[in-house]
Every structure is written in structure tokens, then in C-alpha cells.
């Protein structure tokens, strides 16, 4: 009896160790941003930084003594995020600012405040995003994924374009690998189009817009990176309300593919900080950084599409 108990305990222990080792090997492969250089006096603006990847990015940058502006739709949540970071570190400076990306008026107000107080910022991280089960029209009469995931970030960059250009500020756009299945429908741009598919095409499509947006900024001489953080454990899927049995069902995926939010933030921190202390323009001529291993997107981004997207976005945001 004792003999069998020993054998089974040993096999369980071996099994757990193998899983653990595979997990560690995965984490090693995903990579960590090793740079620990201090960022005193450097100003980073992060949209949607009260939760998930944006929060972790703010936290990591604060620990490196940066000034971080947490641009969030709910000031209370931003303050709570700041007090949580403050439990860990006194370094850096953390400032909350109100920004509701589903409302152009709020975006314009936010940009005005940045221009008045923080015009010499070093990096803008367009991170906020959502994925909803049911699309709806915002106050500005635009389909919500279009506005939050893409158009409002387009508007921010346009409003702050002169500061970005004159200070050589960096723009980091958080997209997703799902952009590879995205499509841009110029005929019904920003509208709700009925379909019988259950999954969220607006998410994929707006994440593709993020790539074209980055391409056009690159063509305009901006130091820009667009990236996929990789599948990470955040609040992004809150609308799908995962149940406990989903976690059991998907446990192999979770164990081998799901990053912690802190690890997911590594790509963002890497793009936001690389070459920032040297004031050099990004020596890596490629603007697409899918991850720390510099994987490339499978999409062939065409110039005429990025130009067309820029034009239609200007019209939607009434920037010209
Ligand atoms: N997690 C992943 O696996 C994954 C994979 C690929 C790409 N991404 C991308 O990573 C980015 C960050 O997402 P996350 O995973 O960290 O999700 P998250 O935890 O849900 O964080 C999203 C952030 O965006 C904010 N936001 C949503 N709507 C907004 C609005 N109207 N105005 C201002 N802020 C708004 C949220 O604020 P509230 O808390 O107030 O809602 C939150 O701070 C997104 O662009 C997402 O597409 C994530
Ligand atoms: C979104 O992208 C994922 C991954 O490529 C794909 O499985 C899914 O079908 C796409 N959704 C739509 C509606 O195209």
C-alpha cells in the first residue's frame, strides 16, 4: 500500500514539475524588458492605465522614476490605481487625468490640458481598448470599438501632433495579433453592420486600423511602434463573463499561452523606453514590433489603404 502511495505521489510531483518547467520555459521565451535605467524627468502618457496592461506599464515606469500621466475615463479608478502603485514604490510621479475615449469632447478637453501643462511629454502610449459582446453607438454617433480602440487615439495624436513632432516624442500603439483577421470597411466606416457571426469583428478590424495608423505616422516621420502584447490576463474579456469552469476547460491554454498582465506589459515598456535616454530616433527602422522577439505582422500594409484611412479618420474627427 505504502509502495503505491509513494509511486503515485512521485508521479504527481513529476507531472507538476514538468508543467512548471514548461511554463518557465514559455515565460523565458516571451521575454522580459531587462533595461532598468532610471527615467527621471521623462513624461509618459498612458491611456486606460487603471487596469490590466496599462496599469502594469504605469507601475513599471513609476518604479523606474518616470512621470506617468494616467489618462482614464474614471478619475476615481485612476486614483485607486495610483494608491495601489504607491503601496509598492515612492519613485516617480503619478498624475491622473480624465479621458473618455468614447466622447470626442472629452478627448479634446484632455488634449487641451496636456498642451497647457505637459506639452514636452516624451511618449504617448495608446493602450486603452475594449471588446464588447454588443456594439453600440456613442454620443458622437460612432460604433464604440471604432471610437475607443482607434479614432479617439487618432484624434489625440492629431491634436498633439506639433508637440510630438517638435519634441521627437514616441508613440506606442497597443494593437493585437487578431488584426491579422481584420478588415477595413470604408463604405460603412464607424457604423454598426449586422452580421450573423457571434464573435467580435469590430475588435479585429479596429486593431488592424491601429497598424495602418502606425504605418501612416511612420511615413509622416514619427517615431512609432505598434505591438501585440500577447494573450494576457486582464479585464479585457469582462463582457464575456468567464465562469469558473471556463478556467478549468481552458487550463492548458491558460498554463501555456496566457501571460500575466505584468509580463504582457513588457513589450509596451520595451517599445516606450528603448532609445528614450539617448534622445536618438529609433535606430530600428521597422515600426512594427509584435513582441520582444521582433516578430512581424503577416499583413501586407498597403500605402493607399493607410492614406485612405487617415483621410476618413480626419473627416470623422473633424480635424480639418
Ligand atoms: N489582454 C490581452 O490578452 C490583450 C491581447 C492583445 C491586445 N490587448 C490590448 O491591450 C490593451 C489594454 O487592454 P487590457 O488587456 O489591459 O484590458 P483592460 O484590463 O480591460 O484595460 C483596458 C483599459 O482601457 C480603458 N478604457 C476602456 N474604454 C475606455 C474609454 N471609453 N475611455 C478611456 N479608457 C477606456 C479601461 O478603463 P475602465 O477600467 O474604466 O473600463 C481600462 O483601463 C487594449 O488595447 C487591448 O486591445 C490585450
Ligand atoms: C478575429 O480574429 C480571430 C483570430 O485571428 C479569428 O479567430 C476570428 O474569427 C476573428 N473574428 C472575426 C469576426 O473575423
TrEMBL record:
UniProt keywords, alphabetically: Membrane, Oxidoreductase, Transmembrane, Transmembrane helix
InterPro entries recorded: NAD(P)-bd_dom_sf (IPR036291), SDR_fam (IPR002347)
Domain of life: Eukaryota
Molecular function, one GO term: oxidoreductase activity
Transmembrane regions: 6-22
Protein name in UniProt: Uncharacterized protein
Organism: Polypedilum vanderplanki
Amino acid at each position: 500500500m505504502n509502495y503505491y502511495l509513494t509511486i503515485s505521489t512521485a508521479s504527481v510531483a513529476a507531472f507538476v514539475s514538468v508543467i512548471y518547467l514548461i511554463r518557465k520555459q514559455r515565460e523565458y521565451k516571451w521575454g522580459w524588458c531587462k533595461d532598468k535605467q532610471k527615467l527621471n524627468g521623462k513624461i509618459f502618457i498612458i491611456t486606460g492605465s487603471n487596469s490590466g496592461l496599462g496599469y502594469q506599464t504605469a507601475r513599471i515606469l513609476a518604479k523606474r522614476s518616470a512621470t506617468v500621466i494616467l489618462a482614464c475615463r474614471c478619475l476615481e479608478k485612476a486614483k485607486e490605481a495610483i494608491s495601489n502603485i504607491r503601496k509598492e514604490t515612492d519613485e516617480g510621479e503619478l498624475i491622473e487625468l480624465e479621458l473618455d475615449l468614447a466622447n470626442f469632447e472629452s478627448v479634446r478637453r484632455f488634449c487641451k490640458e496636456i498642451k497647457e501643462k505637459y506639452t514636452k511629454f516624451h511618449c504617448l502610449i495608446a493602450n486603452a481598448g475594449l471588446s464588447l459582446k454588443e456594439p453600440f453607438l456613442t454620443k458622437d454617433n460612432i460604433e464604440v470599438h471604432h471610437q475607443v480602440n482607434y479614432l479617439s487615439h487618432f484624434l489625440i495624436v492629431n491634436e498633439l501632433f506639433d508637440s510630438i513632432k517638435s519634441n521627437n516624442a514616441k508613440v506606442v500603439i497597443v494593437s493585437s495579433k487578431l488584426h491579422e483577421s481584420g478588415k477595413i470597411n470604408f463604405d460603412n466606416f464607424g457604423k454598426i453592420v449586422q452580421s450573423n457571426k457571434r464573435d467580435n469583428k469590430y475588435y479585429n478590424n479596429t486593431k488592424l486600423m491601429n497598424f495602418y495608423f502606425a504605418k501612416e505616422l511612420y511615413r509622416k516621420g514619427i517615431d512609432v511602434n505598434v505591438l501585440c502584447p500577447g494573450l494576457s490576463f486582464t479585464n479585457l474579456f469582462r463582457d464575456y463573463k468567464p465562469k469558473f469552469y471556463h478556467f478549468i476547460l481552458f487550463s492548458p491554454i491558460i498554463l501555456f499561452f496566457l501571460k500575466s498582465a505584468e509580463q504582457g506589459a513588457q513589450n509596451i515598456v520595451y517599445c516606450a523606453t528603448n532609445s528614450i535616454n539617448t534622445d536618438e530616433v529609433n535606430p530600428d527602422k521597422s515600426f512594427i514590433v509584435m513582441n520582444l522577439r521582433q516578430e512581424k505582422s503577416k499583413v501586407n500594409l498597403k500605402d493607399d489603404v493607410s492614406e485612405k484611412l487617415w483621410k476618413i479618420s480626419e473627416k470623422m474627427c473633424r480635424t480639418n
